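BUG: 3D viewer hangs when loading the predicted structure for this chain

Environment: internal workstation, default settings.
Expected: structure renders.
Actual: progress bar stalls at 90%.

Input used:
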Amino acid sequence: MAGIIVLAISNAAVGKDVTTTEARTRDMMRCQDYLQLDPRTWTPMVIWLMNDPFSLQPPEWTDFHEAELVLTPILTEICRQEPDAWLTSLRERLNSYQQVRSLN
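Structure tokens produced before the viewer hung:
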């Protein structure tokens, strides 16, 4: 019991969180998590979000250039307006932008 109290006090004194860090997947990330990432990782995050290797639908892969030039700025703007939105819920909106762009 004394060891637990000492551990809690030492972590509180150092300012560390005593909870374990949890791994983030795209299903667990909100826009605020995305915006806190290094901006250099935003495009790979968009590719990771859009390209689901476990999807049962036919693959429509998003390439790096499309993600960098089109989808990353759109997702960033949406996330700034809606920081509590789940990234996976925005996938459909990004797909609609992709489809409109492919028609032009």
